[in-house]
Amino acid sequence: MTRALIAAMLLFTAAAVAAPTQQYISDRLELPLRSGQSVQHRILRMLPSGTPVQVLQTSKDSGYSQVRAPDGTVGWVLTRFLMDAPSARAQLAAAKQQVARLTLENAKLKKQVAALGAKTGAQGTQLAKLEQDKQNLTAEVDRIRRAAGSALALDHENRDLKAQTLAQGRELQALRQENEMLKDRSKRDWFLAGALVLFAGMLLGLILPRLRLRRRGGWDSF
Q1: Dihedral of CA 24/27/32/36: which sign?
Q2: Domain total for the chain?
């Protein structure tokens, strides 16, 4: 008989010290967490409805279960106020919180989408502007190339004109020198001609009087 009683007590103890399971405080507003298995034991703290607790052991005789609160406090609560799932009130509150969180996330996502749309539009505008700038630069490069080609052609033409001008200047200088030489020769010829005329005049001035004298002498002899 004693052995059977000891075996029953061991089985009860093993059942009481089973692995802890998680349960929830029922829809009752608050449940006192006591230091023992009776209302005479002091209240350690009040557990609001929906609070998750870990059930460490359960006593069918007293109707109490030993639980661990989320803050680590260990005490006893009435077993009949424990539920395997959160209370409807807690589920509703959690659902409301989740809806509020999802609504906030949805609003944030809408703002992000709007910002991305605006950014995409700005990027499209900037891309169009860059494309226009590229076309303008390409046209400017082509114009500069054409201008550079024209400048090279003008430079060659200017060089040719300078060479022609230099050659014509030399020819003009040579013509001027030749003209000066001709002028000097003409002056010299005129000078010589004048000298000859003067000499001839002087010679005639000397010869003519003698001829007259001879003629008079001949006439006198008659």
Answers
A1: negative
A2: 2
